[in-house]
Write a structure and sequence with these properties.
Number of helices: 4
Number of strands: 6
Shape: globular
Distance between the termini: 23 Å
Structural class: alpha/beta
Largest sheet: 4 strands, mixed
CATH topology: Transcription Regulator spoIIAA
Helix content: 25-40%
CATH superfamily: STAS domain
Oligomer: single chain
Number of domains: 1
CATH class: Alpha Beta
Strand order of the largest sheet: 1-2-3-4
CATH architecture: 2-Layer Sandwich
Order of helices and strands: EEHEHEHEEH
Length: 146
């Protein structure tokens, strides 16, 4: 089982929270704890780097969405950077795209599915890739009650 780690990197105007490993039901309390510690530093913005958080389930995403909502209510911001395509897809499947800000834009605007099928003018359309679903661990988002 991959180990979970979280680190706080404070700066004058923002705090970066780096999440590494699986973010799931067993680690959601740790995610909530590190996000709470980041909020206590009272910066205007908190950046959550998820580039090395390779697996998410709904409990981890809901912890992040709840934290984002609380910061927003206090006039502060939470920005998520480094989200892998699988993380972005799960955010969409969990109907959290309107609540999370990915790489500086709302997740709904950053959804790679929104641009699927587009290509530069005059360029041939790319060949369709295999439609086999990517291997997943755990149940789909709908089955998890996201």
């Amino acid at each position: 089982m991959p180990q979970f780690n979280a680190a706080l990197v404070p700066a004058p105007d923002q705090v970066v929270v780096r999440l590494v490993g699986d973010t799931d039901l067993s680690t959601a309390p740790q995610v909530t704890d590190v996000l709470t510690r980041a909020a206590e530093l009272n910066t205007r913005q908190i950046v959550v780097d998820v580039a090395r958080a390779h697996f998410w389930d709904c409990s981890g995403l809901h912890a992040l969405a709840g934290f984002t909502r609380e910061l927003s209510a206090a006039g502060r911001a939470c920005r998520i950077v480094g989200a892998l395509p699988a993380t972005r897809r799960l955010i969409g499947m969990a109907n959290l795209a309107g609540r999370l800000q990915l790489d500086g834009v709302p997740a709904a605007a950053a959804d790679p599915a929104a641009t699927r099928g587009t290509h530069p003018a005059g360029a041939p359309a790319p060949r369709a890739a295999s439609r086999r679903p990517a291997p997943t661990r755990g149940a789909p988002a709908a089955a998890l009650g996201c």
